[in-house]
Write a structure and sequence with these properties.
The protein is an alpha/beta fold. The chain is built from 14 helices and 8 strands.
């Protein structure tokens, strides 16, 4: 059953009526196809109007939608012969970060992604996509392995942030994230990162400091969640919509600011409405971003990454 967001209520009512009419249709009864077609056109028009003017807070809700394609869905759709690799070789395996080797459209690659889970059981298993130090150390290990075997790295980020628990801090969360960023920047192979849902804080950038950074149309990317920002600035998490507006967290704002390279289009109503279409578009965007990086020397790849991130925030004099 489709889950609707608060601002989608007008569409929900129309689609409920369409479904009700379809259930009523039976052999010998009056043909109601024309009425269903009219309502469907009205629902599509309403959906288009709503999604044409989404606020940053509404985009945050779309990015967090429970049915949105997660990292494992991306890997299943885009990566053939995927072989998962586990563990950081120091402490444990972290299920919040999935990684391994496979083939992307015929090319051998290393794939790393943050997985939130799709139901209660898998969300608990993957800790809602919030990685612990061992997760970032696993990602670092896989990036270094990719360098040794000359495998391009594809990362798919969807996390509200790194796990903030005491045990994570005790095991060196900040250091692990910093080492993850360092591994991204020093990788001798192409690295294409995509924010597929939430890109939260250092937990996201530890996997996203790539040669090319892509974002789904309705994804978000920020140093802190809107609720966290509102709690700090206004001592009131209810001010999250105001914070989301001020923080410039949408793909459109970040593209204008030069913090990401490309926006991956989503189907009308978001990736959760037509996952297959959204995943195909993602695959095309990743292939396009990877093509000009293939064949560059390790020195050139590192230099391009360095120039890219040093240029962020520069103000002309």
């Amino acid at each position: 059953m489709r889950q609707y967001l608060e601002f989608e209520k007008p569409v929900a009512e129309l689609e409920a009526k369409i479904e009700e009419l379809r259930q009523m249709t039976a052999p010998g009864e009056i043909n109601i196809a024309d009425e269903v077609a009219k309502l469907s056109a009205k629902a599509d028009s309403q959906l288009k109007a709503i999604y044409a003017k989404l606020t940053p807070w509404q985009k945050t809700q779309v990015a967090r939608h429970a049915d949105r394609p997660k990292a494992l869905a991306v890997i299943s759709a885009l990566i053939e012969d995927f072989t998962p690799l586990a563990g950081d070789r120091a402490y444990a395996d972290d299920a919040a970060i999935i990684g391994g080797m496979g083939r992307f459209r015929g090319q051998a690659v290393m794939v790393i992604g943050t997985e939130k889970g799709t139901d209660t059981e898998t969300r608990i298993k993957h800790n809602f996509g919030m990685a612990k130090p061992e997760g970032y150390r696993k990602a670092k290990r896989l990036m270094e392995l990719a360098g040794r075997f000359n495998l391009p790295i594809l990362t798919f980020v969807d996390t509200s942030g790194a796990f903030p628990g005491i045990e994570a801090e005790a095991r060196g969360q900040a250091e692990a994230i910093a080492r993850g960023i360092e591994a991204c920047l020093s990788a001798p192979v192409p690295l294409v990162a995509t924010i597929i849902g939430e890109g939260g804080s250092g937990g996201a950038i530890a996997l996203a400091a790539g040669n090319a950074v892509l974002m789904y149309e309705h994804a978000i990317y920020s140093v802190i969640s809107p609720e966290g920002c509102a709690s700090i600035l206004w001592r009131d998490s209810a001010q999250a919509p105001v914070a989301a507006e001020a923080m410039r967290i949408t793909a459109q704002d970040l593209k204008k600011l030069g913090l990401i390279d490309e926006i991956v289009p989503e189907p009308l109503g978001g990736a959760h409405r037509e996952p297959a279409t959204a995943l195909t578009a993602l695959g095309d965007a990743v292939e396009k971003a990877l093509a000009p990086l293939t064949g560059l020397t390790p020195e050139a790849l590192r230099a391009k990454r360095r120039e890219k991130f040093l240029a962020m925030g520069k103000i002309g004099l």
